[in-house]
Design a protein that fits this description.
Layout: H1 6-55, H2 57-62, H3 65-75, E1 81-88, E2 93-98, E3 114-117, E4 122-131, E5 152-162, H4 164-214, H5 218-223, H6 235-306, H7 312-343, E6 351-354, H8 355-372, E7 376-379, E8 385-388, H9 390-406, E9 412-420, E10 425-432, H10 466-477, E11 481-486, E12 490-500, E13 524-528, H11 532-544, E14 548-552, H12 555-563, E15 570-574, H13 583-594, E16 600-604, H14 609-617, E17 621-624, H15 629-641
Helix pairs in contact: 1-4, 4-6, 6-7, 6-11, 7-10, 8-9, 9-10, 12-13
Length: about 650
């Protein structure tokens, strides 16, 4: 509903009381005149009827119908008389005149004094005819008392009157009242417009002035100052508004100057922060790459060293070195997983798979760790099938069970499935009898580097990235993760997945691949690595697996080896190579020179997510340094089979 403007509101405020008072006064006067006209009309009707009744007395007494008929006919000459009837005391009509249709029904109701005939627009009046009492005086006895006789009804006279005249009078009164009322309202309207104009114009100017101030059009506001008249009823208000406008104008200019200065300072700070962030990113990328290279070489050297014969004391020292290297590798791998999940570089491939194969692989990978701590790792068999990414689900469970083993000193760890078929869901639950989690820590255990019972940062209890990776991976898959715990009693973590019926032919087979992997004994490998230490370590590990290895430090040297007749079965290349070369282009050139699609993989100390996309586009497997020997060996065997 559209609201009324101030002009309309003021007009209504002036007109509504006037209209109400005029209407009430006109109505009162009109109804008073209506009553007067109606009373005069009814009084005249009774008077005419009474005169006819008096004139009919002798005719009724004598039974002279001729005289009565003449009386009735003469009565029609009276104004508004439409029918006259003279009736004797027995109800017999002795004389009548006028239109018979205007005669009222001659029933007992005629004894009433008056009545109405709405359809004919007539009123009728019944007047009784009474015999006059005549007092007989004795002329000779003045003291004689007069004879008193009761009046005797001889009959009655019925007269029908037309309402046309009185209705016309009422209509004329109504029309006259309406005309007078309309003229009064019109005069009041004109008077209200004239009187309100002196107030409305200043208000309109003030409204326009305020609108222009709101639009910050101070030039136009200043130009209107000359239009203010000293006789204006709102002169003081307009002067005050202009003064306020001047103050706002000055304040706005001052604020704009301050905002411009602050914006420039903020822009400078932002540019400085961006430069610092870029420098930090470059430093971290370089530091990460430089840290991964020696860690990668160290891990390979230690792995190769562990394959050799040693004394018990040396073997124990090598085990300690391996544990330290593994802790460093776990930290770097955890940071890499977190950065990939944050950058959205992890691809999800949801397909049906059986949980049984995943549980078998879980038991195979973690049974030794549980046994070394004296814990019972129980994984209940299940025949359930789910729809998800088998690799990512396995990473989640691996982190959960690893975490449970680390923080459990006595008892065991249980992995079980609870199905909710009605909802089409199932829960994979990981139970432990460990230290438990306090209620105030339940919401923060999924944060990076947060550990409930590791204030001393014992590296054997992990790095605090496992649950963070679990939450991020579960969010990526769209699978809810819930956690319940009792301090000192244990913890239960549940992963909810969509359950499906077992398909006729599985699209995903998880685990059970070892029988299809190739043997590495005698396999010829061409290794391209610009870091001499990493190259030596990788050659040593590959040779320890029985492979024939040719190592070079760049693209040109690799092409020269091919030109000299080297025919590798597999190519392993670092991504960063001397000059502008990179591993992807090097592998492409080597395949072209060999005229064969030789299996190949990339290794890199870079964690840039764009590198992952480039490797996927080139259909090359990418291993991030430091590379675990077992992972490298599994990849090489799989590549040779494919």
């Amino acid at each position: 509903m559209k609201t009324l403007d101030i002009r309309a509101r003021m007009f209504l405020a002036a007109m509504l009381p006037l209209a109400l008072i005029s209407t009430l006064l006109a109505s009162w006067a009109l109804f008073a005149r209506y009553d007067d006209v109606q009373s005069a009309y009814e009084q005249r009707n009774r008077l005419v009827s009474r005169q006819i009744a008096m004139a009919s007395e002798y005719g009724l007494f004598a039974g002279n119908r001729t005289q009565l008929q003449g009386l009735a006919a003469s009565a029609l000459h009276e104004a508004d008389v439409r029918w006259v009837g003279i009736i004797d005391r027995q109800g017999l009509v002795l004389a009548s005149a006028g239109n018979p249709l205007d005669a009222p029904a001659l029933t007992a109701s005629l004894l009433a004094a008056q009545g109405h005939m709405p359809r004919r627009r007539l009123d009728w009046v019944s007047q009784p005819v009474l015999a006059s009492d005549i007092a007989l005086d004795d002329l000779f006895d003045g003291a004689a008392e007069p004879t008193v006789r009761a009046n005797r009804q001889l009959g009655q006279v019925v007269v029908a009157f037309s309402r046309q005249t009185v209705d016309d009078q009422k209509l004329n009164l109504a029309l006259g009242g309406a005309v007078i009322g309309g003229l009064s309202l019109l005069f009041g309207m004109m008077l209200a417009l004239v009187l309100s104009r002196g107030v409305l114009l200043p208000i309109a100017r003030i409204s326009s002035l305020v609108h222009q101030i709101g639009q910050a059009d101070f030039q136009q506001v200043h130009a209107q100052r000359a239009q203010i008249s000293p006789t204006d009823p709102l002169h003081d208000l307009q002067v005050s508004i202009h003064a306020m406008s001047d103050q706002i104008w000055a304040t706005r200019d001052e604020l704009q100057a301050q905002v411009a200065l602050a914006t420039q300072e903020l822009r400078d700070k932002k540019e400085e922060a961006e430069k610092a962030n870029l420098a930090k990113s470059r430093f971290l990328a370089a530091a990460s790459h430089d840290l991964r290279q020696p860690t990668h070489a160290l891990g390979l050297f230690v792995s190769r060293l562990a394959q050799l014969e040693h004394s018990a004391q040396t073997h124990a020292l090598i085990g300690n070195v391996q544990a330290s290297v593994q802790a460093l590798q776990n930290l770097l791998d955890g940071l890499l997983d977190v950065s990939r999940l944050e950058a959205g570089a992890v691809q999800v491939n949801k397909r049906p798979f059986a949980l049984a194969a995943l549980f078998d692989q879980l038991a195979q990978d973690l049974s030794d760790a549980a046994r070394d701590k004296g814990l019972a790792l129980r994984i209940r068999p299940t025949g359930a099938w789910v729809l998800s990414d088998a690799t990512l689900v396995y990473r989640i469970l691996l982190n959960l069970v690893n975490n449970a083993i680390r923080y459990t000193e006595h008892g065991g760890v249980l992995v079980a499935v609870r199905q909710q078929r009605a909802l089409g869901l199932l829960q994979i639950q990981v139970w432990d009898t460990g230290v438990g989690i306090a209620p105030e820590h339940l919401l923060v255990v999924f944060n990076e580097f947060f550990q409930v019972a590791n204030a001393a940062r014992d590296r054997t209890k992990g790095l605090g990235l496992g649950l963070s990776i679990v939450r991020r991976t579960a969010d990526l898959l769209g699978h809810p993760v819930t956690l319940t715990s009792r301090l000192g009693a244990g913890t239960r973590v549940s992963l909810t997945l969509p359950v499906i019926d077992q398909p006729s032919a599985s699209e995903v087979v998880f685990g059970g691949e070892e029988n299809t992997l190739a043997d590495l004994q005698g396999v010829r490998a061409l290794v391209v690595e610009d870091d001499a230490l990493a190259l030596a370590a990788l050659q040593s590990v590959l040779q320890g697996w029985g492979m024939q290895v040719v190592g070079v430090n760049g693209t040109l040297a690799a092409l020269q080896q091919v030109a000299q007749g080297v025919r590798p079965d597999v190519i392993v290349s670092d991504y960063r190579l001397p000059g502008d070369a990179n591993g992807i282009d090097t592998i492409r050139q080597l395949r072209s020179a060999l005229n064969a699609d030789v299996p190949a993989c990339l290794m890199s100390g870079d964690t840039d997510t764009t590198l992952i996309g480039q490797a996927q586009a080139a259909k090359l497997s990418l291993l991030h340094k430091p590379v675990r020997p077992a992972k490298l060996r599994s990849l090489l065997r799989r590549l040779l089979v494919e």
